Structure formats: C-alpha cells, structure tokens
C-alpha cells in the first residue's frame, strides 16, 4: 500500500475541509460562529506554506505538489470566488423582501456613510504614510484597498499606480531629492539611496520601477486584507459591548420601523417555495455578469461592482420582485440560511489559507508597519463610522452593522454581523451602502496617488 502524505496534506480540498472543520469547532468553543474558520485557516495556511517551501528547497518528497500549492497560494482563487458568490447570493435573497423600505427610509444616510467610511480610511492611510517618511507609497495604497477588503479597489490601485509610476519616473530629473530617493529605494529595496549619484533613469530602470510599483500594490493588499477582515470581525462582536448597546432595544426599534413600513404597503408578500435552483443560479449568473460591466468615469477611469457587488445587487432586486414567470426568488429561509453558512465558512477558511503566511510574515518582517497601517485604517473607519451612524444619523444597530460592513466593502464582516445580530436583516443595509462605498474607494485610491508623499 502506497500513501503520498505530502500530496494528501497539500491537496486544496483536504485543506479547505480541515480549515472549516477545525474552524467550526473553534467557533463553537469560543462562541464566535463561522469566524473560527478564518483563524484556523490562517494557522493552517501559514504551516502548509512553510512546509511547501521546505519541500521545494530540499527537493525531497512530492516537489510537484508543493510547487503547485505555492503557485496558487495554497488554494486557487476560483474557490474563493465561488463560495463568496454562493454566500452573497443567499444573503441577498434572504434580505430582499425589506430592501425597498430600507432604502426609502435610510437611503441618503447610507450613501453619506459609504463615502465617510472610505474617506476616513484614505485619510488615515495618507497621514500614516506621510508620518512614516520612508514607506513605499504603492504598498501603502495597496494596504488601503486591503484594509477595506476591496478587490475592485485593488484593480483601481493597480491602474493608478501604473500611471503614477510612469509620470513619476519620466519626470525623475525634476523631482525633489526626497522623491528621487523614494524611487531609488523602490528600485533597490534594502539599500540606502543616494539621489546625488543618479541624475537620470535609463529606460530599463523605468520599466523596472513600473513593475515594482505594481508589485508593491499587490504586496500591500495581501498584507492589508487579512488584517482588514480580522478588524471588521472583531468590531462586529465588540462594538455593541464597548458602547453598551441594548440589543433588545435595538431590535424593538428596528421591528417598529419595519412594521410601520409594512403597514404603509412597503413590503411585498409572496409565498416562498422550498428552493428554486434555477432561480438561484440565475441570480448568481446575472449578478456575476452585472458585476463585470465597466462604467467609464472619464479621468477617474473605469468603475465596476465586481462579482460580490454585482451578485448582491441583482439578488436583492430579484428577491424583491419575487417571481418572474415560473421562477420564484422567494425561498425557504432555512435552506438559504444553510447555503449562506456553508458559503461563508468555506470563504473565510480560504481567506485564512491564502493569507496565513503573509500575516505571520508581516508580523515578523518588514511588513509590520503595513500591518499596523491596515489595523489603524480599519479601526478608525469603523469606530468613526459607527459614531456618525448611531449618534448623528440615529440608525439602529441592526441596520447600521450591515451599513458599516458595506462602507468597509467587507463581505466577511457582513457574515459576522448576521451571526451577531441573529438575523439576515443587516444584509439590506450592506447592499444599500456597498455601491457608494465602492465608488468612494476607487475615487480616494486615485486621489491618494495624486497627493504628495
């Protein structure tokens, strides 16, 4: 009997199941629900990446399996997207019946909140970059998109970094000594730059600078993302305790507002079916397609909702409509709730597996400052967003928890908010805030590159 232990241990399916199994056990023990999958995933991801590197370096064992694991960052991103789509589609359909009422009542407040949270994140990022006086500006812009867990924001940051790097390196001779040293340090990390020794950049150096700038955004995003996820998960659990929220009172306020809206005819009542797989698949496919559409915003470049935003918006719309011919988008809440939990557990487990090594590495290496920036961005954005939403806009916590996660463009946070609140209602606040927060994220990412650092 022959058993390849390395091939078994580095199989993505085995790793995903292990992360979810151990994560759900941890979640039950610590009463943190599906969030446990993120924490065990981080540990397993770090350990398996370290083991794979050792196998490749030593050349002993199944080198092919180790190289494949390293190439895809433990688990292929396709699995990440699949479970995220399943989770978001289920959440959107669950929360859809009240979406029209919620937008009518809170809409302008959610729009403002989305811009405020992304602005706070960008402002905090900029201040900490200036204070560092030596941080790679491209890595920091990546941290901003990572801290707010935004893939469309990452796309905007990459595009903006490319344009900024071309402009910066092309005008090298006219730059200040400080900016020249910044460019040289990005070209040659780990060295002490001396701009007086380099009067111009040859074409090959300019090309290299372009590559390094884009890579810096990717590195910053990879470090910022898991910390952004961790902060929003902790915040959803701790904010009610820190600010002494009376959850029963919050529920009463929310229920009273929804009852008033229902009596005014704001909720469509449609008899649900147990489950309609055709309708569910249509919501996923239609949303994914909608998320791929790109809107030209002129000097701001192109804007798109991405797969998460597209699936969420279309699921909310179809769920609100309820029925189209033989398709029924109002389904049994228990079945959709199961799909939601499976999708979220695997999604969080995969996030941990893919970013575990980056998290540990950042805490022990040069990425420590970037990890600090990401944490600060998340804390400032969420706490100030909460204070404004709760005490200025007077939004109850049930809606506000989803709106804050939408302002952070944090799908994992939404899952935790749903767990913590005990209902799917925060998803409506998330869906109403997310598109505007995403636009703000793209806008402020571009502005970050225009400001002097």
Automatic annotation (TrEMBL):
Domain YidE/YbjL duplication stretches: 16-240, 280-449
Main location (coarse class) = membrane
Q: Where in the cell is it found?
A: Cell membrane
List the record's Gene Ontology CC terms alphabetically.
Answer: plasma membrane
Pfam families attached here? Answer: Asp-Al_Ex (PF06826)
Segments spanning the bilayer are 6-25, 32-49, 79-103, 110-131, 219-239, 277-295, 301-321, 342-360, 366-388, 395-418, 430-448
**What is the membrane topology noted in the UniProt record heading this document?**
Multi-pass membrane protein
State the UniProt keywords alphabetically.
Answer: Cell membrane, Membrane, Transmembrane, Transmembrane helix, Transport
**Family matches, as NCBIfam families:** YidE_YbjL_dupl
Which protein family is named in the record?
Belongs to the AAE transporter (TC 2.A.81) family.
Q: What is this protein called?
A: Membrane protein
Question: What is the scientific name of the source organism?
Answer: Propionigenium maris DSM 9537
């Amino acid at each position: 009997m022959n058993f390849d232990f390395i091939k078994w241990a580095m199989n993505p399916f085995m790793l995903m199941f292990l992360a979810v199994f151990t994560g759900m056990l941890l979640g039950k023990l610590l009463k943190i629900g599906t969030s446990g999958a993120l924490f065990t995933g981080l540990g397993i991801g770090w350990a398996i990446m370290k083991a794979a590197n050792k196998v490749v370096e030593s050349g002993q064992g199944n080198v092919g399996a180790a190289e494949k694991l390293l190439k895809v960052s433990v688990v292929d991103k396709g699995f990440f997207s699949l479970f995220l789509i399943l989770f978001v589609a289920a959440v959107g359909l669950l929360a859809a019946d009240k979406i029209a009422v919620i937008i009518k009542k809170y809409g302008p407040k959610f729009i403002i909140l989305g811009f405020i949270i992304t602005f706070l994140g960008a402002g905090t990022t900029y201040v900490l970059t200036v204070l560092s006086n030596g941080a790679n500006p491209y890595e920091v812009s990546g941290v901003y998109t990572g801290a707010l867990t935004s893939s469309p924001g990452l796309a905007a940051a990459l595009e903006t970094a490319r344009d900024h790097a071309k402009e910066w390196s092309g005008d090298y001779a006219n730059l200040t000594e400080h900016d020249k040293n910044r460019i040289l340090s990005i070209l040659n990390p780990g060295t002490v730059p001396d701009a007086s020794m380099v009067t111009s950049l040859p074409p090959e150096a300019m090309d290299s600078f372009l590559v390094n700038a884009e890579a810096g955004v990717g590195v910053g995003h990879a470090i910022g993302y898991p910390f952004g996820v961790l902060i929003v998960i902790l915040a959803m659990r701790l904010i009610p305790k820190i600010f002494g929220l009376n959850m029963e009172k919050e529920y009463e306020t929310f229920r009273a507002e929804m009852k008033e809206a229902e009596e005014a005819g704001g909720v469509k009542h449609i008899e649900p079916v147990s489950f309609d797989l055709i309708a569910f698949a249509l919501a996923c496919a239609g949303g994914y397609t909608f998320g791929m559409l790109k809107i030209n915003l002129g000097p701001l470049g192109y804007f798109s909702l991405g797969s998460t935003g597209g699936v969420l918006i279309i699921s909310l719309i179809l769920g609100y409509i309820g029925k189209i011919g033989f398709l029924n988008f109002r389904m049994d809440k228990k079945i959709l709730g199961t799909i939601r939990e499976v999708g979220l557990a695997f999604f969080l487990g995969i996030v941990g597996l893919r970013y575990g090594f980056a998290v540990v590495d950042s805490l022990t290496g040069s990425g420590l400052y970037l990890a600090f920036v990401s944490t600060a961005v998340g804390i400032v954005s969420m706490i100030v967003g909460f204070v404004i939403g709760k005490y200025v806009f007077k939004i109850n916590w049930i809606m506000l928890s989803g709106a804050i996660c939408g302002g952070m463009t944090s799908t994992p946070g939404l899952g935790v908010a749903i767990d913590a609140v005990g209902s799917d209602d925060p998803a409506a606040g998330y869906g109403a805030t997310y598109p505007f927060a995403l636009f703000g994220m793209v806008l402020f990412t571009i502005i970050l590159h225009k400001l002097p650092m």
